[in-house]
Amino acid sequence: MANSFLVSVHESFPQPLWLDRVAPFLQSVMDILQYDGEEISVLFCSDTFMAEMNGTYRNSSGPTDILSFEDGGTYIDACGTAWTCAGDLLISMESVERNASYFLTDPDTELKRVLIHGILHLNGMDHGTEHIGHSEVPQSDMLLLQERTLAACVNTHIIDGV
């Protein structure tokens, strides 16, 4: 069995030309992590919308790169296949681009990092208060797995021009 992905953009964000490359990337990550039978939705948005959602759901001001909304519910489809509703990812590409500059990397690599980060959160992993800074080595199991998975995806690209 595979996984199912709904990838879309909020009205506040223009539809990127690379949007159709997100689901295949997500599937390759799920294969690496051996996650199967999950449904995940990804919504790309602006910093403005992200700040609104960050305030509503985390009581934090300003935008962030990603919000993960874990679901964990299950259902059986018409064919009798059991699915896990892993949850939803909300991503601000403006924040991803700022992160790329901070980490001295390209937006494609940073987008892949953020997507992997979200998948790990939807599957119950947490990094506590640890966040990777520029040139810092992660300590938590989640962030170590994130970086190993990212390294395994080095030859896969989502955004053009990389």
**Shape field:** globular
Order of helices and strands: EHEHEEHHH
Provide a count of the helices: 5
Rounded to the nearest angstrom, the distance between the terminal CA atoms is: 31 Å
Strand % is 15-25%
Major sheet: arrangement of strands: 1-2-4-3
| Beta strands, count | 4
**Which stretches are poorly predicted, pLDDT < 50 over at least 5 residues?**
none
Quaternary structure: single chain
Mean pLDDT: 91
**Helix/strand/pairing class, anyone?**
alpha/beta
Key features?
4-stranded mixed β-sheet; alpha/beta; 4 strands; 162 residues; globular; 5 helices
Q: What features would you describe in this structure?
A:
With 162 residues, this protein is α/β, with parallel strands linked by helices. It is 38% helix and 22% strand. It contains five helices and four strands, in the order E-H-E-H-E-E-H-H-H. It has a four-stranded mixed beta sheet with strand order 1-2-4-3. The protein is globular, with a radius of gyration of 15 Å. 31% of the residues are buried. The model has no long low-confidence stretch (mean pLDDT 91).
